[in-house]
């Protein structure tokens, strides 16, 4: 071929050139695709294929059908460059992928028909095989997953950047009432949804020292000479939008060593030393959230954060270079969203890459950084706002510390101009915390470097400005905004609740799934007895499924006709699972005392994991299980009260819990929960909320109506007032006979086989400083629970309230959240992907 000739290497138009076996969407094509992958990919014959083989074959066949959309989307961005969202997050709790991709492609029925030809009567048999990807832990990661799905569904170009953890946080077992952590080997059987891209690996440095020099133009420069390196290998996961051609991606980084095997060390008998570098490097992507209770654990966490942030920013800059776009154009092509403080090192790392590698001057580099980066704050808890010890930071990232010092110096100069002579405000705003041991405040670094800072609920965003970062908000009021969280209706209604979805499709048409405002049409049915019965029937179907699961997993029989009262979330004192447990004891005492007239039959369900190093959270799990053992063994409770702790709560289990819930427990101390997303999933699925005015509860109550929400507890301002007055929990205990009896029963060991010391730490905290005001809210919480019981006994009224929760929950779709980010923070627009002649 002559030099004047050129190969056209552009992607063939899918559907015109793609193999019909791999592109066809009917049942025959899906069956043929499965057969092909069984034989050629898995080396199995259909006659000997296991359920897992069939799961893998179907997943590969579905992935084939994603590829035309995935590659066309990438090609569209290259051909028509526009700003792309880079969503940096330590977690992406994406959940199982097969069912979600079948839904978004619109081929669930075709897949079911193909499976029948293999002798599989129900798709659920195959879905049960799929492992939960161990890429996240709680609400932060689940939010990131919802946002990526909405970005694709709204046809907005996006890349989610994170870490490909080999092991998830842990699998939770319950033994003798205690949480036991077991390694989450979610990748042990392979994961069909990832696409390794080793040729796009990045090199990341750690440690070492810096040295100064003068460049050819006479400018002062600093050079970083790391003492160790790791290679980040990207693994791409396609993220398909709902019934659109747009397919975004997660790019997850796996850590490799630069040199995997030292032959010299091996040959002289140092067998561990031969692979030491490989082991040390690969630890970076080994496990989600290593225990930071030790120096080594903290060091590993910081290394993880720098590792994935550096790889991601290098990848973004390289994408410009590939397209011959000047680095100065970075803000026009990438908008970088920091999902909490975990990726906040991006501010310093982007500056390092622009100054040290691309030779930009400081002012230009800072303009690019500030125009590109935005920061979402997810917490008001001081312990959750990351700080890094200065000595650790200097040892691990010496060049970044230099840059942070300079960022801070220049920033404090601005502060001095506004507040001359005010040393107090300088100390408050400085990135360097001078109190106690010196530390880097990552939230300050993110706030200074970002063009926008947002909270995740209206109350939370207000508290950021008033309590968390008030001086920053006064300095830059234009930076601070709110985007209330949302959840995707595709997974959390369409997939999780097929009975409700069918009812919605029939009543208001299928478009509700991408336009949740259409749910408002259901208000017309609030007095339609026939429709309310159908709505209640859909709920009962979900409850029966969950009751079966509970019996299989725990051995506890529960009545699907009872009130399913559910609290599922990470176990933490501020989320107040112990407040819920106390009210269960109060209900137990009432029944034992023969006061049953106003009690509604109730199944109280808990679920959630406690951090391995969080003693009080683990004791709370033991406490709940101790109560369950007593309640469930007492014949007086039959037909009135059951208590269940669901082990190993995750996305897969959540898909069964949300549709089955009648009452959603959102009972955190006012002012402590940033937003919550479980509260939104419950409301969409027709659960009523009992809750405080905290996080997004405030907006849920406003939307669904105060009369359809069970409110209790002190407000955030009342909590602050109590604290300022010198809060004494014992003054509240003294005024409540039921609370006294409840605490006494715990103290004498009634729920711990007579061991009066087991739950002593819980009693000591509640009667001591009670940091989360459990005692202050107990009586009002019990009052609200009595209101719940009264409402439950009027089934038509309850069903009407439940329907209105679903009807008015559309605001809490992640599609709405993403539209707000696109318009007010990212300034990005949809980029539709055309596949012109696909069959």
TrEMBL record:
Q: Which GO terms describe its biological process?
A: glycogen catabolic process
Q: Identify which cofactors the protein needs according to its UniProt entry.
A: pyridoxal 5'-phosphate
Q: Where are the transmembrane segments?
A: none
One molecular function GO term is: glycogen phosphorylase activity
Q: Which SUPFAM superfamilies match?
A: UDP-Glycosyltransferase/glycogen phosphorylase
Signal sequence region: none
EC class of the enzyme, as a word: transferase
* Record's catalysed reaction(s): [(1->4)-alpha-D-glucosyl](n) + phosphate = [(1->4)-alpha-D-glucosyl](n-1) + alpha-D-glucose 1-phosphate
- N6-(pyridoxal phosphate)lysine occurs at 681
Q: Specify whether Glycosyltransferase is a keyword of the entry.
A: yes
Q: Which UniProt keywords apply?
A: Carbohydrate metabolism, Glycogen metabolism, Glycosyltransferase, Phosphoprotein, Pyridoxal phosphate, Transferase
Q: What is its EC number?
A: 2.4.1.1
Which Pfam families did the record assign? Phosphorylase
**What InterPro entries does the annotation carry?**
Glycg_phsphrylas, Glyco_trans_35, Pyridoxal_P_attach_site
Q: Does the keyword Isomerase apply?
A: no
GO CC list: cytoplasm
Gene3D superfamilies registered for this protein in UniProt: Glycogen Phosphorylase B (3.40.50.2000)
Main function: Phosphorylase is an important allosteric enzyme in carbohydrate metabolism. Enzymes from different sources differ in their regulatory mechanisms and in their natural substrates. However, all known phosphorylases share catalytic and structural properties. Allosteric enzyme that catalyzes the rate-limiting step in glycogen catabolism, the phosphorolytic cleavage of glycogen to produce glucose-1-phosphate, and plays a central role in maintaining cellular and organismal glucose homeostasis.
The entry's family comment says: Belongs to the glycogen phosphorylase family.
What is the name of the protein in this document?
Answer: Alpha-1,4 glucan phosphorylase
Native species:
Prochlorococcus marinus (strain NATL2A)
């Amino acid at each position: 071929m002559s030099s004047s000739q050129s190969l056209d290497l552009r992607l063939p138009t899918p559907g015109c050139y793609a193999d019909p076996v791999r592109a066809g969407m009917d049942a025959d094509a899906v069956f043929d695709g499965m057969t092909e992958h069984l034989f050629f990919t898995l080396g199995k014959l259909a006659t000997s294929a296991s359920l897992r083989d069939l799961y893998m074959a179907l997943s590969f066949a579905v992935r084939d059908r994603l590829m035309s959309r995935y590659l066309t989307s990438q090609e569209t961005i290259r051909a028509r460059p526009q700003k792309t969202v880079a969503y940096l997050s330590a977690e992406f709790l994406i959940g199982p992928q097969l069912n979600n991709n079948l839904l978004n492609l619109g081929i669930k029925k075709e897949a079911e028909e193909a499976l029948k030809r293999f002798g599989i009567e129900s798709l659920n048999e195959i879905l049960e095989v799929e492992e939960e990807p161990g890429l996240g832990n709680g609400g932060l990661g689940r939010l990131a997953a919802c946002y990526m799905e909405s970005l694709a569904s709204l046809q907005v170009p996006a890349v989610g950047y994170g870490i490909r953890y080999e092991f998830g946080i842990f699998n939770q077992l319950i033994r003798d009432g205690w949480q036991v952590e077991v390694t989450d080997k979610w990748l042990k059987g392979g994961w069909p949804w990832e696409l390794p891209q080793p040729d796009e690996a990045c090199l990341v440095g750690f440690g070492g020292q810096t040295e100064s020099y003068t460049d050819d133009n006479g400018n002062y420069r600093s050079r970083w000479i790391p003492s160790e390196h790791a290679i980040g290998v990207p693994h791409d996961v396609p993220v398909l939008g709902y019934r659109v051609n747009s397919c975004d991606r997660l790019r997850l980084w796996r850590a490799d060593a630069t040199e995997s095997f030292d032959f010299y060390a091996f040959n002289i008998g140092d067998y561990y030393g031969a692979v030491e570098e490989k082991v040390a490097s690969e630890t970076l992507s080994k496990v989600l959230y290593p225990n930071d209770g030790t120096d080594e654990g903290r060091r590993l966490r910081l290394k993880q954060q720098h590792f994935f942030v550096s790889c991601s920013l290098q990848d973004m800059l390289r994408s410009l270079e590939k397209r011959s776009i000047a680095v100065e154009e970075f803000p026009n092509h990438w908008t970088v969203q920091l999902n909490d403080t975990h990726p906040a090192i991006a501010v310093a790392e982007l500056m390092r890459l622009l100054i040290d590698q691309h030779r930009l001057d400081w002012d230009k580099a800072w303009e690019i950084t500030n125009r590109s980066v935005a920061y979402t704050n997810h917490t008001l808890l001081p312990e959750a706002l990351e700080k890094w010890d200065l000595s650790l930071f200097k040892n691990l990232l010496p060049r970044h510390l230099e840059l942070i010092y300079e960022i801070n110096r220049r920033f404090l100069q601005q502060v001095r101009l506004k507040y001359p002579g005010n040393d107090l405000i300088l100390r408050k705003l400085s990135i360097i915390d001078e109190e106690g041991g010196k530390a880097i405040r990552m939230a300050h670094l993110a706030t200074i470097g970002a063009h926008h800072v947002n909270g995740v609920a209206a109350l939370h965003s207000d508290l950021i400005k008033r309590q968390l970062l008030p001086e920053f908000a006064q300095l830059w009021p234009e930076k601070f905004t709110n985007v209330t969280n949302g959840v995707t209706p595709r997974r959390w209604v369409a997939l999780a609740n097929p009975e409700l979805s069918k009812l919605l499709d029939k009543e208001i048409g299928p478009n509700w799934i991408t336009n949740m405002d259409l749910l408002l049409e259901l208000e017309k049915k609030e007095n339609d007895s026939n429709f309310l019965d159908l709505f209640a029937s859909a709920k009962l179907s979900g409850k029966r499924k969950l009751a079966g699961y509970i019996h299989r997993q725990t051995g506890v029989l529960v009545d699907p006709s009872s009130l399913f009262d559910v609290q599922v979330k990470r176990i933490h004192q501020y989320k107040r699972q112990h407040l819920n447990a106390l009210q269960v004891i109060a209900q137990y005492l009432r029944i034992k005392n023969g006061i049953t007239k106003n009690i509604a039959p109730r199944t109280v369900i808990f679920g959630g994991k406690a951090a391995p190093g969080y003693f009080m959270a683990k004791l709370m799990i033991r406490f709940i299980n101790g109560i369950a053992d007593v309640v469930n063994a007492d014949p007086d409770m039959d037909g009135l009260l059951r208590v269940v702790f669901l082990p190993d709560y995750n996305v897969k289990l959540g898909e069964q819990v949300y549709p089955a819930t009648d009452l959603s427990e959102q009972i955190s101390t006012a002012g402590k929960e940033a937003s919550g997303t479980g509260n939104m999933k419950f409301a969409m699925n027709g659960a009523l909320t009992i809750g405080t005015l905290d996080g997004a509860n405030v907006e849920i109550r406003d939307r669904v109506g105060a009369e359809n929400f069970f409110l209790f507890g002190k407000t955030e301002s009342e909590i602050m007032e109590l604290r300022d007055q010198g809060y004494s929990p014992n003054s509240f205990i003294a005024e409540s006979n039921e609370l006294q009896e409840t605490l006494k029963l715990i103290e004498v060991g009634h729920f711990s086989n007579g061991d009066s010391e087991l739950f002593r730490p819980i009693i000591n905290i509640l009667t001591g400083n009670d940091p989360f005001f459990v005692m202050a809210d107990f009586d009002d919480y019990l009052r609200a629970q009595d209101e719940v019981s009264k409402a439950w006994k009027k089934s038509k009224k309850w069903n009407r309230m439940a329907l209105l929760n679903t009807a008015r929950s559309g605001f809490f779709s992640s599609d709405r959240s993403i539209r707000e980010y696109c318009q007010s923070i990212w300034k990005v627009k949809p980029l539709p992907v055309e596949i012109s002649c696909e069959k």
